[in-house]
Amino acid sequence: MDTIFLEQVKVQTKLGVHEWERMVTQTIILDIEIGYDLIPAGKSDSIADTIDYGAVVSRIRETLIEHSFQLVEALAEHVCQLILSEFKAVSVKVKVAKPNILPGLKALGVVINRIKT
User: Fold this and answer.
1) Torsion angle defined by CA atoms of residues 3, 58, 73 and 112, in that order, rounded to the nearest 10 degrees
2) What is the CATH number of the domain that holds 61?
3) Could you tell me the CA-to-CA distances from 87 to 24, 80, 100 in Å, in that order?
4) Which of 21-25, 45-49, 73-77, 105-109 is predicted with the least confidence, judged by mean pLDDT?
């Protein structure tokens, strides 16, 4: 299986266990790996045979600004299911990082992997 990757995607969303955390948008950083058969695109040199990376990023940004999440786990699951269902990916790995949330901590987050069933 081939992999399309999107690294250090900065998005805005409302995220946090406490209600005050979800009062304003925060920057979240995503690293995404999308499993997809890239042989047809490599042969055709056509966007129709692959996933439009710009469309993926736009769609993620659009949906995350519309939603509020308590847990980074829920946000990661939301992104995975969106990519699997809307972009016909075979698999997806998403790392969600919430930067500078605690003193002395660069970031916290999760990494989840999902395979289309």
Assistant:
1) 0
2) 3.30.1130.10
3) 29, 10, 31
4) 21-25
Angle of helix 72-86 relative to helix 53-66, nearest 10 degrees?
140
Which structural domain, as residue segments, surrounds residue 7?
Answer: 2-115
Tokens of 66: 């519309």
- Is 98 assigned a catalytic role? yes
| Set 14, 93, 95, 98: catalytic member | 98
- In sequence order, what are the beta bridge partners of 39? none
- How many structural domains does the chain have? 1
**pLDDT one-digit tens code per residue, 71-84:** 999 999 999 999 99
Neighbours of 48 (CB within 10 A): 8
- 3-class state of residue 13 by DSSP: strand
Q: Strand 26-36's sheet: what is its strand order?
A: 68-69, 2-15, 26-36, 91-99, 107-115
pLDDT of 22 above 90: no
Check if the beta carbon of residue 4 is closer than 8 Å to that of residue 34.
Answer: yes
Cβ atoms of 87 and 34 closer than 8 Å: yes
